[in-house]
Automatic annotation (TrEMBL), chain A:
NCBIfam families: yfcE (TIGR00040). The keyword Membrane does not apply. Signal peptide: none annotated. Pfam families: Metallophos_2 (PF12850). This is Vacuolar protein sorting-associated protein 29. Keywords: Protein transport, Transport. The keyword Ribonucleoprotein does not apply. InterPro entries: Calcineurin-like_PHP_lpxH, Phosphodiesterase_MJ0936/Vps29, Vps29. One of its GO terms (biological process) is protein transport. Belongs to the VPS29 family. It comes from Paramecium sonneborni. GO terms for cellular component: cytosol; retromer complex. Residues 12-153 form the Calcineurin-like phosphoesterase domain.
Automatic annotation (TrEMBL), chain B:
Belongs to the VPS35 family. Pfam families: Vps35 (PF03635). This is Vacuolar protein sorting-associated protein 35. GO terms for cellular component: cytosol; late endosome; retromer, cargo-selective complex. It comes from Paramecium sonneborni. Plays a role in vesicular protein sorting. The lineage of its organism: Eukaryota, Sar, Alveolata, Ciliophora, Intramacronucleata. It comes from the Eukaryota. Keywords: Protein transport, Transport.
Length: 193, 768
């Protein structure tokens, strides 16, 4: 949906929840912060974990997009391995990221971006948040919103993270949220087309 | 019968309407004598014996409204100078008793307002007079009329009638007498035949009785002390002397409703004693208790808990009385006693939120109660109550509840389905409250209680698949709450869970094992993150155990096992910097390839799994070079065996990353991979021009490694040449695939241009 009316839209980027297998539930602070009907789109990188949480994600915004993580095989509501989402003049490629060889590599992901004519890649898998630019393409990893254990990172305690995007025409405000000791810390930056 | 009733009522109402019309007309012409005559005729309709109580009530209300007009006229008469005593006297000329008394009450009410005689004198006089009506229904209503008319004429404290007209004691006395008489008449309505019909009829009229109690509670002069000393004892007297269950129940309820909770707190002992020892056996005491407890709990929560606790020991009072009921050989049904216990527990949890001793005591009496029953007494209702009983404390209290020794005693009375419900509620409480599981003893109790979910017990009942999945996920989530500062205790607790999980069958292990495995992965990281190593847990022991668990899953769930093995390798990789576990890791890697080769049939699945395998291997630093080379080589071979040619080519191309990454720098292998990929690609391009896509991918991969690995320039130009040759044909039909190819090729050309511009040496020679 390519509409000028996307101006001002707020997007939530999140994923890698693994509710049940790695973590018991989302932190209340995050649930209440996100459940306030202020989101227009939710983009989930996958690996949700259980139906209850999936249903919650579906209803916190009018537009929910989710792609399949390697542990989402039991979830038959997720149909796509990758999805292209148009927000204003930006084209976002949503994909879990376990499919890439190697993982987390901007140049490798660039090829996917190019062949789909997309500007931003939103992916997960590493449980480590990341916002970067490589040869005119942007890469955002919103981390794990539940603080689920991820084998790639070396810490036993992983902080829950997610990213909020604010679409402002040919700019996007990027807000990276991290839950530390019960408080949500925010880092902001801006990306331009 | 019903139609007859309707007709009687219609007839009576018509007469009332008629006579009222004439009465009003006479009043307008100031013809009092005539008006009184008509009002008498109207009131005579209330002499009837034909109407059912409900219909009599309807008639009564119609008459009542008309009498207001007359009352107003009397007031006007007084203002015009007519003497009240005269009026009082003249209405007594009415022929029939009923009209006479209604008129008397009406005049009396106005008379009181004149202050010529003390209120209490008139009121007591009226009370005496209406004793003449002893018919239950008619007597009830005339006293109701009395009550309504004298509403604001009582010598209440601070009212205009206090003083010469009496005082609060008189006011109380008058209402109590009225209540007592009305109650007696109400009870006489029961009669001896048609029991249930009479009961229904009585219930239709209960508000007339209740109004007396309301009136008492509205008196300004009824302070706490007055209530305690004068009002309550009298009400109790009426209640206990009546020996009628309906009356007793209703009056107790009214009293509890009408008076403030502070009063009840101060008179609780008295109230409870009456309830438990002095009421008829058929009275549902449990409801009265539950009512009281509900109100007091609300009161406690809205007010200072301090006063609640310090002044009166509410809990003990209730407990003593409830226990008395339990122990007495009364005919109170088991189910009702259980209801009561549940309500009491709820009350206690609300008012004394952290008092586990109270909870345990209630548990004990509940157990005693259950022990006395036969198997057959445990109906569905009773079982539901026991489930509630076991689950309620968990919402507010910690898991320490589980260590109360009475808990398992209660569980054993429940059939499988109910035990399963309790188990689910326990898990839910634990998960919802984020209760940390850090104590060994509590863990053991917890596992005992959630056994219905963990193993197939003797009286197991099948459940639908989605419910089974939900319950197992709940168990899995519980595992993640295990945590302790002392990691060896944390491990011991985890081991307890795992021991139980081992006893479940593979359907459960599908959910429980991964959770346990990830908990163990996390433990490994926690041990690695410690600044001082606790020596009691060895990596080896944990690794062996994890391997053992994954192996169990392998049989039925090979894909899951493969993914778990991949995670396992990464876990070892993060803690093993010195390749101490090289052989072990190599073993795991080999297992992965074996499963991939032998157990994964679906070709699409193979492609995505192989990518994951390669990406995982590309992260590893925990395997020695020789072993690693073997593993990576195996993976590459697997790529070459994929179903479709393009998948093979891309697969082999991807292998390059295993050989060249942060830890591996094997340029030779990389070059070999390119050669292999090219070979496969060249074999296929002949038949299928769209294969040019693969060549473009290969070209991009060259550029990926361009600055690290040496390639022959000619090799690359050859690829470019092939692309340029085959491109037109590939793009000719303009379908989805063509579009992709075009976009990618354009982007690739852009990439070279851009990097040339940035003066990156290697690109200068590329002619694209």
């Amino acid at each position: 949906m390519a509409q000028e009316s996307n101006y001002g839209d707020i997007l939530l980027l999140c994923g890698d929840l693994h509710i049940g297998t790695r973590v018991q539930k989302l932190h209340e602070k995050i649930v209440s912060a996100l459940g306030q009907n202020k989101l227009q789109h939710v983009l989930c990188t996958g690996n949700v974990g259980n139906k209850e949480t999936y249903d919650w994600l579906k209803q916190i915004s009018p537009n929910f997009h989710c792609v399949r993580g390697q542990y989402d095989d039991e979830n038959n509501e997720i149909h796509y391995d990758q999805k292209v989402i148009q927000i204003g003049i930006w084209k976002i490629l949503l994909i879990h990221g376990h499919q890439f060889v190697p993982w987390n590599d901007e140049e490798t992901i660039s090829v996917f971006l190019k062949e789909n004519a997309c500007d931003i890649a939103v992916f997960g898998n590493s449980h480590q948040s990341l916002i970067s630019k490589f040869e005119k393409k942007y890469f955002i990893n919103p981390g794990t919103i539940s603080g689920a254990y991820g084998s790639i990172k070396q810490d036993a305690v992983i902080q829950p993270e997610f990213v909020i995007l604010e679409c402002l025409g040919d700019e996007i405000g990027v807000y990276k949220y991290k839950l530390v000791n019960g408080e949500l810390l925010i880092e902001k930056c801006v990306i331009t087309k | 019968m019903e139609e007859d009733q309707e007709k009687y009522l219609e007839d009576a109402r018509k007469v009332v309407k008629e006579q009222a019309y004439f009465m009003r007309a006479s009043l307008e012409k100031a013809q009092l004598k005539d008006a009184l005559r008509y009002s008498s005729a109207m009131l005579s309709e209330l002499k009837t014996s034909l109407l059912s109580p409900r219909n009599y009530y309807i008639l009564f209300m119609q008459v009542f409204d008309e009498m207001r007009i007359l009352e107003n006229y009397f007031k006007e008469e007084y203002r015009r100078g007519r003497k009240m005593p005269d009026l009082y006297e003249s209405v007594q000329h009415a022929t029939y008793v009923i009209p006479r008394l209604y008129l008397l009450i009406t005049v009396g009410s106005v008379f009181i307002q004149t202050h010529e005689i003390g209120a209490k004198v008139i009121l007591l006089d009226l009370l005496e007079c209406i004793k003449a009506i002893q018919h239950p229904l008619r007597g009830l209503f005339i006293r109701y009329y009395f009550l309504k008319l004298c509403k604001d004429r009582l010598p209440d404290t601070g009212s205009e009638y206090e003083g010469a007209g009496g005082n609060i004691d008189d006011a109380i006395e008058i209402i109590i007498r009225n209540l007592s008489e009305m109650n007696k008449l109400w009870i006489r309505m029961q009669g001896s035949k048609e029991k249930s019909k009479r009961e229904r009829e009585r219930m239709d009229l209960k508000v007339t009785i209740g109004e007396n109690v309301t009136r008492l509670s509205n008196l300004e002069g009824v302070s706490l002390d007055t209530y305690k000393a004068k009002v309550l004892p009298k009400i109790i007297d009426i209640i206990t002397s009546s020996k009628d269950a309906i009356s007793q129940t209703y009056l107790m309820d009214c009293t509890i409703q009408a008076f403030p909770d502070e009063y009840h707190l101060q008179t609780l002992q008295e109230l409870l004693k009456v309830c438990t020892t002095q009421l008829e056996p058929t009275v549902d005491i449990k409801n009265i208790f539950i009512n009281l407890m509900g109100r007091l709990a609300d009161f406690a929560l809205n007010n200072d808990m301090g006063t609640f606790n310090s002044e009166v020991d509410i809990y003990s009072m209730f407990k003593q009385n409830i226990d008395k009921m339990l122990d007495s050989n009364s005919q109170i049904e088991f189910k009702n006693l259980l209801d009561l216990q549940v309500a009491f527990l709820n009350f206690t949890l609300r008012c004394y939120p952290s008092n586990s001793e109270y909870v345990n005591d209630i548990l004990k009496s509940c157990c005693r109660l259950c022990e006395r029953q036969n198997e057959t007494d445990f109906t569905e209702e009773c079982q539901k109550n026991i489930v509630k009983f076991l689950a309620m404390p968990l919402d507010t209290m910690s898991l320490s509840i589980l260590t109360m020794n009475e808990y398992p005693n209660l569980m054993k009375h429940l059939p499988f389905q109910k035990r399963r419900q309790v188990a689910i509620k326990i898990c839910q409480a634990v998960v919802n409250l984020n209760q940390v599981i850090e104590d060994l003893k509590i863990t053991e109790e917890l596992l005992k209680f959630i056994s219905p979910l963990l193993i197939t017990q003797n009286d197991y009942v099948e459940i639908p698949e989605n419910e089974f999945e939900e319950e197992q996920q709940l168990v899995a989530r519980t595992v993640h709450l295990v945590s302790n500062q002392d990691l060896s205790i944390q491990n011991t607790i985890l081991q307890k869970f795992i021991a139980k999980f081992k006893l479940g069958d593979v359907n459960r292990q599908k959910y429980t094992y991964p959770a346990a495995i990830f908990a163990l992965f996390k433990l490994v990281q926690q041990i690695a993150g410690q600044t001082e190593r606790q020596q009691e847990i060895s990596y080896k022991a944990l690794f062996d155990q994890i391997k053992e668990l994954i192996e169990v899953l392998q049989g039925n769930f090979p894909e899951l096992a493969l993914k778990l093995y991949l995670n396992f390798l990464l876990c070892i990789n993060t803690v093993d910097q010195t390749q101490e576990f090289d052989e072990f890791s190599y073993d795991i890697g080999t297992q992965i390839i074996t499963i991939f080769q032998d157990e994964i049939g679906d070709s699409n699945l193979k492609v995505t799994l192989l990518n994951q395998i390669m990406s995982t291997f590309a992260q590893l630093n925990c395997i020695n070079p020789e072993n690693f080379d073997t593993l990576a080589g195996n993976a590459t071979q697997q790529a070459a065996k994929l179903l479709k040619k393009n998948e093979q080519a891309i697969g082999v191309l991807n292998s390059t990353h295993m050989f060249y990454n942060r830890y591996q720098k094997n340029a030779q292998r990389v070059q070999e991979c390119f050669k292999k990929a090219l070979k496969i690609a060249n074999q296929s391009i002949g038949n299928n021009p769209k294969f040019v896509y693969v060549f473009i991918q290969i070209l991009n991969k060259y550029f990926y490694f361009f600055e690290q690995v040496e390639f022959k320039e000619a090799e690359i130009q050859e690829v470019i040449k092939i692309i340029n040759e085959k491109l037109p044909k590939a793009l000719s039909d303009n379908d989805e695939q063509s579009k992709k190819i075009k976009i990618l090729w354009t982007a690739t050309q852009e990439l070279v241009k851009e990097r040339k511009r940035r003066s990156i040496q290697a690109y200068q020679q590329i002619n694209i």
